[in-house]
Each structure stands twice: as structure tokens, then as C-alpha cells.
Amino acid sequence: MTTFWTILRRALLPATLLATSLTASATYVEGYQQPMQGWKILQPDYNKNSYLDAISFEWDYFMIHSSTWNGIVGYVLANPRGRAPYLGWALLPNGNNVGVVGEIPGQKPIANYVNFGIDNTSINATQRAMQAVAANGTYADYKALPAGGPSGEPAFQLKGKTADWEWNFLVTQDHANRDVQRQSTGAFTTAYGTDVGLLPEEEWNVDMTWPRTNVVGSVKLLATGQVINVNGKGYREDSWGKYLLSVDGWDFLVFGEDTANGVMGSWQTYHKSDKMDYLDMSFYDNGQLVSQRFFSYKNQMGWVHPNWKWDGEANSCVPTNTKIVAKNSQYTVEIDANIGSRQRPILSSQTVGVGIFFIQEQFPTVTGTIKRANGTVVSTFVTRAGGEFSRTRDAALWHSDLWCNLWSLDKHHRAMP
Hints:
mainly beta
């Protein structure tokens, strides 16, 4: 009997290609070692001959935290080789894309997503760049500047314009001294998983290139003409692979104190994955740098969203807070993230694949405690954070908040260690 998977493989696979098994890149270099390198899905060692190449995509994701404006800017490259165009309705919008969410303190966040397609756009496989302009004047202009920082350090220029926002940011790495422990501890190194999505042979990579960044520049709210100067901190992530995100999703949180010796952390979970559920922490214990990675599948980390609400834009139940506990033989970490109403979904109806899906951008405040194994406290902290929650949208038009809290009892959590 012909299975659904066989039909889908035949539909996605051009007649001249043979399906091959996916493997992690043998020659991949960690992003912090080569932050300017070109798009991963355009590299010679990326498996372009897979029957799933039509769902290849990569996002370069920047988070910005400041006292004047909080937001994210993401540049997305999808299906750059134009595979299976007759199934384009089912996948991510092809070619160059940009997503932005901005929050002026005290106001509701505003989200936009723009697809520029493949024609009349430019990308770079050698040194990271993306340029695209649409007929309505929206644009994306993103590029690596190898010596573009204030002191000649590597930097990224982020420019763009969507329906509501126009921005110009310069991003450089912060806390670069902490890179020394990446290889020895595994914390903040690339996570790779094949247990994501729905189809056999899907894969996904998450590279936290710069877990902490400096961001300077400005952003304009086009509806009012208000120009907001930004001088803050942030985060850069480069993630890529072959992944049907519309039938999966994730939870994500990143945070960091603004001081040089401050605590910073990143929490990643994918709904259908075990190997990509983890918490990375970096902090100082009596003046000594410590980096730790806690895995759920090793029973070192658990989480729960204690409270949920219905979001009519996302058409889904969404969490309003998050509690994370991580524990190993050396340290215990307790984190509470208060999200509340400081969240807004990124939405697009351009394809069925994204029309059934949402990414909820969050701007929580994180309160945390780090303890040694003997129970003594290393650090307590309260800091700004950013996060995401994503999944397939609900078929129902409405649920009560009580229903959402009952619905969540067997979803989106992991037992505490």
C-alpha cells in the first residue's frame, strides 16, 4: 500500500534527485568562531539533494532589550533553490523574509511579517547579507560588517522597513570573554536534533551565535513618525534546517543582566523533541566563570506554565508565565518569567503552512536564583528577557481562560528534577 509519507516524498522530490539521509554538517564551524559566515543552507556541505530541500529555511534572529524599545528583528531565508514550487502553498513563503515585533514600554507590541520572494532580492553564501525591496517601499537590508563595530570589532547592520516600523541598528557581541568555556562545557553551543517536526529525516540546528549583544541605533513608528533612540542589549541566534515548523513549535526564553559579571541564560524547548530541550546558564561563582547546560532528557531540567489565557489574534491558548527548575550535581537554578499581556503574535496568511501557525513574541521579566549543591546562594537576579511560544493555531474560534488552563495540564511542560 502506498503510504502518506511515500506520496509526500514523491511530491517534494524532483524527478532528477534521489532521497538521501540527513546528517549534521561535518565541516560546520560554530557561529561564535565565524560570526560573519554566509547562510548555512547555501553552504557546499549542506544536503541540497534531500527530498525535503523544499522546506529548507534559516533565520537570523536578533533580540533587542532597552529602556526605550524592546523587540525582535528576524531575517528569514526559505527554500532558496525554489524546489517544488507547485507545493509552495503548503510551505513557508519562499525567498527572503523579514519579521519584526516592537514594544514601546507601556504600549501593546506591534508585529509585522513581510515576504519579498526570490526575484529582485540578494543573499550571500560567503559573508552574511540579505537585501530586498518591495514595490510598496518595504525593504530588508542586512549585512555583516567584519570590522564595523565602534572599536573595529565584527558587527551586523540591521535595516528594514515594514508596515509599522523602520529601523537601523548596529549589533556587536557582548560578554565575548565567556566564549572560552563553550567547547569545554557545551553550554551555548549548537544544538542539533532529528526528532522535530513530523516527517522522517527532518532536522534542525540552533546556534546561539552571540547569547549577549550590544545594540545601538534607532527605530521609527511610522504611524506617528516617532523616532526612538535605542542603546541596549540583546541576543543573536542563527537556526536552520529542514523542518515543518507548522506542525510542531517551541518554547524559548533568553535573559541577561546588564553588568559585565551578570547572569545570562537561554532556555530552548521543542514540542516534539527530547534532545533539544535544555537550559544554558553563564554566571560567576566567587569570581570564577561558570557555564552549565542542563538537559531535560537527563532529568536535569523541567518547566511548567502555571497560567494560560486565550489569545484571539494567535487563535490559541498562550502562557502568561513560566517556571523553570534545573539541577545537577553542582548547582540548582530556579527561574520565574512573568509574561502577562506583554506578548504579540507574528502572523502571515501568505501560505497554508504559516497560516495555520503563529509565533508569540514575549517580553517578560525574569526573576531567578542560583544555588550551590550545599544550598548556599550564588546569585539572585531580576532582569529583562525575551521569549517565544509557538504552535499550530486552534481550529476553534474561542476558548475561555479556564478551558486553556485545563487544556494545558497534559501539554507543554516537563517534570521538575
